[in-house]
Amino acid sequence: MGGGILLKIGPFSVRVATDLPVFARQFISSYADFPLLDAGDFFDFDVAVVRAEGVFGSSRRRVCFLTDGRRSSSELPVEQVSPTFEWGLNWCIASQAHQYLIIHAAVVEKDGVTVLLPAPPGSGKSTLCAGLVSRGWRLLSDEMALYDSDQNMVFGMARPVSLKGQSVEIIKQFAPCARLGDAVNTVAKGRVALMSAPSESVFRVDEGGLPAWIIFPQYVPGAVAELSRFSPAQTLVTLAEQSFNFDLHGVDGFEALCGIVAGARCARFSYSSLDEAISVFDDLAGSFVEYP
Amino acid sequence: MSTHESILVSVLRNPVRTLSLRPSELAQVIQQGRRANLLGELASRLDELGVTDNLPEAARDHFSSALLIACRQHDVVRREIDYLRSALARVKLPLILLKGAAYVAGAHLAGSGRVFSDIDLLVRKSDIANAEAALRLAGWQGTHLKSYDQRYYRKWMHEIPPMVHVRRETCIDVHHAILPIVARTSVDTEKLFERVQPIGRTDVLTLDPLDMIIHSATHLMHEGEPDNLLRDLYDIHLLVSQAFRGNCNLWSELPVRALELGLGRVLFYTLRLCEEVFQTEISSCCWILLNPVKPFILPRWILMVAYHRLLQPYQGRSSTLLEKLSAHFIFLRSHWLKMPLPLLVAHITYKYFFARDKVGELSRIA
Predict the structure, then answer these.
(1) What is the ipTM of this complex?
(2) Quick one: which of A255, A148, A257, A140 has its CA closest to A206?
(3) B35 contacts A68? CB cut-off 8 A
(4) pLDDT tens digits along B123-160
(5) Per-domain boundaries in chain B
(6) Residues A87 and A155 in one domain
(7) Residue A114 placed within a domain
């Protein structure tokens, strides 16, 4: 398997190894723009995706995720090797990187206006996020917003956007130039395809942002793209629920969230057409938008 | 005896060394610490020395993360201790804490930065029914409800099936002895009760400091899983170093007490390992007193080789043949010590063939 490669993914140095050529290919294409580090550098996470152990040597069909040399208990079909890596790395970050308050949310930015998009699965958050970044918005994150309380900034990792279900086809039509990996069927989340972040987002990944807007998107068939007022208190509660390590940070975590919410305008956003949605977002970035 | 010392052990012995490590070595220390469940304790040592700020930021983040996890867990443990104390008080039983929870409650060095998965407590066997009823009333529910598991715990083990709180999901292990009922060595638990003492000024109790060391040693030498061996040995290194600081008389009392409890050999091996791995200072009078139970050279050598293999933290590679053999040897030995052979065969057969849904692999049995 060898020592793998050491890659800078956002604020983290990640050592990635594999014994699967298919994963190596997919990984190289979706992480092509990420900087390589020297083998002697510090690493935060040591991960690998390898063939699972079968009865007669290694399995051809199933893969598992390793962190610090320890195998995950779950094994997945080899077709899902890239999502396995993404989920595994998410787990490493969510369970170990407590220097950040970690919120399950997408983060995008344009012209200095940062927007935080927390939303439960199925709300159309990733679709909207993929649409925005194919139309000039910078991707900070699709899954995890990393809030650094010392710098009072939210950072992302510009990792691939994970598109689920119908949104794979929607994005293919909406942005034919998007770098999309093969769609695979997964048990946990249905059909999944990974869309690489635009190169510029990767190059500027160290630039954090403080959310000017916290927007809860919701895909509603036939709806007109529209922002509506959402209570800051409710936003705070939802962010706490969507945080991976809010409880660990105790009072500091609560105060951090209060700060984020107090500095942003909170809204709900329903949409059905990506074009319309993006024009509403472009208005947020472009000029003063009257708060709904 | 150890061929080459791991980088984690060398920084645990001398935490200041962390400051002079190369970036890749620092990453390795963090990785080994994480695998051995010792990262929080190392972070705590660095914090006590006030050198955390001199570390590179990336490394510092890992240490502060590990400390944060431990601190939050200790908050929970202290709150649970309070609940446990009042639950047992309703049936007029004292709360006697063992191991991790006792270290935390007693502000032992071995507690700071330590993470653990359950709270261990000790109750007289005759009080088990009362204690269990009181704990149930306070929201802790029994687990392992299958009749085989119930029999396994209640007839053979030194604890009742673990209890989990219905709302807070905290897990407690209620012990009535420090070794299984059917174990090869039998320890008179009453002798431990005779010397229990309060933790600080509270009405929560724990074992006498010497008994605490002996109990941890007993646990270490009967443990079949290698995952926390290094952590458990480090606990003992700290307990010993803390207990004997400025109190040399205890050096003769410790072996005498261990021999009285029938645990002399357990103490012998444990202190040997402490000395060889962490260079714990152990008085020569202790070795002289333990001489009568000193094992023969061959079994001693085999056991020490096996333990040294298993005490190696993760080296960034898969296990060697010697490591795999050592793991199997220690696993089988621990079961051999904990159960008579016919029972062991019956137990392994049952677990392997009839309860595979949960265990799957041999090393997860029991």
Answers:
(1) 0.90
(2) A140
(3) yes
(4) 999 999 999 999 999 999 999 888 888 988 988 899 99
(5) 7-364
(6) no
(7) yes
pLDDT in tens, A129-169: 999 999 999 999 999 999 999 999 999 999 999 998 888 98
* Largest interatomic CA distance in chain B: 57
Choice among A110-114, A288-292, B274-278 with the minimum mean pLDDT: A288-292
Query: What digits encode the pLDDT tens for the residues B156-209?
Result: 899 999 999 999 999 999 999 999 988 888 899 999 999 999 998 888 999 999
Query: Between A70, A99, A249, which is nearest B61 by CB?
Result: A99
Interface probe, candidates A12, A50, A93, A99, chain B, greatest B C-beta count within 10 A: A99
Q: How many helices (H) and strands (E) does chain B have?
A: 16, 7
Q: Do B68 and A249 touch (CB under 8 A)?
A: yes
> Residue B112, SS3?
coil
pLDDT digit string (tens) for B321-349?
Answer: 888 899 999 998 998 888 888 888 888 88
Across the A/B interface, how many CB contacts are shorter than 8 Å? 51
- Residue A292 inside a domain? The answer is no
> Are A117 and A75 members of one domain?
no
Q: Note whether B154 and B90 are within 8 A (CB).
A: no
CATH architecture of residue range(s) B7-364? 2-Layer Sandwich (3.30)
Residue A1's pLDDT is what? 45
Residue A238 lies in a domain: yes
Instruction: Work out how many domains chain A is built from and give that number.
Output: 2
Which domain-ending residue is among A27, A61, A96? A96
d(CA B162, CA B166): 13
Q: Which residue has the tokens 């130039």?
A: A177
* Distance in angstroms (rounded) separating the CA atoms of residues A264 and A103: 15
Q: Are residues A245 and A281 in the same domain?
A: yes
| Contact criterion met (CB below 8 Å) for B55 and B63 | yes
Nearest CA in chain A to B71: A248
Which of A76, A96, A116 is the C-terminal boundary of a domain? A96
Residue A78: which domain range?
5-96
Mark yes or no for CB contact A96/B34 under 8 Å.
yes
A167 and A44 in a common domain = no
Quote the crossing angle between the two packed helices B264-278 and B297-310, to the nearest 10°.
Answer: 50
Pair of tokens at residue B283: 């008085």
